[in-house]
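Pasting as-is:
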Amino acid sequence: YYWYERDPSLFEGERTAMAKYFPQFKLEKLEDGRLSWVGMVTPTDMRPGAQWIIQVVYDHNHPNNSTYGGSIKIYCIDPDLAEISKKLGESIPHTLRDSAGNPYLCTASPGDIRVGNVNTSAASALSWAIKWIHVFEMWLAGDVSTAQFRDHIF
């Protein structure tokens, strides 16, 4: 069974939180049975016209805190972080790679995630991702140094 079949109340809580805080995100089921949310965020206060297409993907073992980012991965569909990193000639702070080598955002460390009665959710991971996007935009503009971005000094 998938996590959303084993724990329907957790699944309903995820749906409720996303509907409340991120209604522009739509739930999708991937070919391998994982669930994901896809939607757009527009940090217009940072860069006029900025639009980010984000995909929030649950691992099969959700909820789990065994890795950085936990069992929810945040992917940037557009802009393409791999392309940006390649153009910059350097790695982007607080990004990780999945088993296929695709970059995703590090939105939590294992110690930040509690599994049991309280756990990470797509809505909370997406909230952290939006903060990351703002700092990333500031980094690209030169308002935040690489050291500040890397070390959370902003």
